[in-house]
Amino acid sequence: MQSMEFVKENKPAQLPLSIWWVAAGLAANAALLAGVALLDAALPEPLGPGAPPERFHGLTAHQHLTNLTAIGPRVAGSYENEVLAVGVLVAAVKDIAAHASPHNQLELDVHTASGAFALSFMDGMNNVYRDVQNVVVRVRGVGGRATGRSALLLNCHFDTVPDSPGASDDGAGCAVLLGVLRALAAARRPLRHDAVFLFNGAEENILQASHAFITQHKWARDVRAFINIEACGAGGREVLFQAGPHDPWIVEMYASVVPHPYASSLAQELFESGLIPADTDFRIFRDFGNLSGEYRQP
Ligand SMILES: *[C@@H]1O[C@H](CO)[C@@H](O)[C@H](O)[C@H]1NC(C)=O
Ligand SMILES: *[C@@H]1O[C@H](CO)[C@@H](O)[C@H](O)[C@H]1NC(C)=O
Ligand SMILES: [Zn+2]
């Protein structure tokens, strides 16, 4: 009884104070969260043509994306994909080659191929393709040592599903790769290792052009590892979605050189469990090229 009275007596004196403390604490917390959210969403100012040529020019990459999406949906086999999109990419690569530094050389190959393969995807299927196109570009350092198997493959696909201009999937990936290609080609010293850029023209139905490249292209044997730039939904920050299966140095390299590394192992588990009916060129390079690499979503 006595202790109850004691509590009762003290309550009125304590209550207002603690409410204010709680309110202040919540406000501080909210301000901190807002600050972190702002920092998290903050992006560097995109550079334009006036910036040093060996930097990534975000404004030019955006123009590549505008040019590609202006075509509209680009279904593999359509005039839009096989003629217009290939034309936009080839023109962009030729312009990049014209602005390369004397230290690096570009070689362009528009590759057409036919083939067939079994895919253990969903219930399993046979996948037959004819005359799919790849726009392939190799950058080499001038006077560099003869390369064994040491090239890095960078992949995106420019074809789309029938009802979308594919800005996110995967136009943005191709725009980013064109920007990276421009910057590497303009580098003021020779590249130590070759980079092979694969703009593949048939991913959506299903993974055919990457198969054509990795099983048939003359440069496929030179590839040591790959980075696949794909989309999974639109928006959000770049995430490393899948890596491996061998060569853990790839992830160590990612963690040590990427300015804002951000990765999740969730997607890898989902893909491998077969729970989601989707897959990417990652599988093709891994299963048909015996290669390790990364799948990043820009
Ligand atoms: C976009 O297309 C226009 C018109 O063909 C061309 O002049 C321009 O150079 C293209 N932009 C890029 C970044 O390739
Ligand atoms: C695939 O690559 C791994 C790691 O590089 C290697 O150990 C293995 O022997 C390769 N398998 C084949 C069939 O080439
Ligand atoms: Zn895609």
Automatic annotation (TrEMBL):
Q: Which GO terms describe its molecular function?
A: metal ion binding; metalloexopeptidase activity
What cofactor is this protein dependent on? Answer: Zn(2+)
Q: Which residues form the Peptidase M28 domain?
A: 134-289
Compartments, as annotated in UniProt: Endoplasmic reticulum membrane
**Classification via Pfam families:** Peptidase_M28
Gene Ontology, cellular component aspect: endoplasmic reticulum membrane
What stretches pass through the bilayer?
20-39
Keywords attached to this Swiss-Prot or TrEMBL record, sorted alphabetically, are: Endoplasmic reticulum, Glycoprotein, Hydrolase, Membrane, Metal-binding, Metalloprotease, Protease, Transmembrane, Transmembrane helix, Zinc
Q: Which domain of life is it from?
A: Eukaryota
Which regions form coiled coils? none
Major localization class: endoplasmic reticulum
GO terms for biological process, alphabetical: proteolysis
Q: How does it sit in the membrane?
A: Multi-pass membrane protein
- SUPFAM superfamilies linked: Zn-dependent exopeptidases (SSF53187)
Q: Which Gene3D superfamilies match?
A: Zn peptidases
Q: Which family does it belong to?
A: Belongs to the peptidase M28 family.
Q: Kindly give the PANTHER family that the UniProt entry links to this protein.
A: ENDOPLASMIC RETICULUM METALLOPEPTIDASE 1 (PTHR12147:SF22), METALLOPEPTIDASE M28 FAMILY MEMBER (PTHR12147)
- Specify the protein name: FXNA-like protease
Q: From which source organism is this entry? A: Spodoptera litura
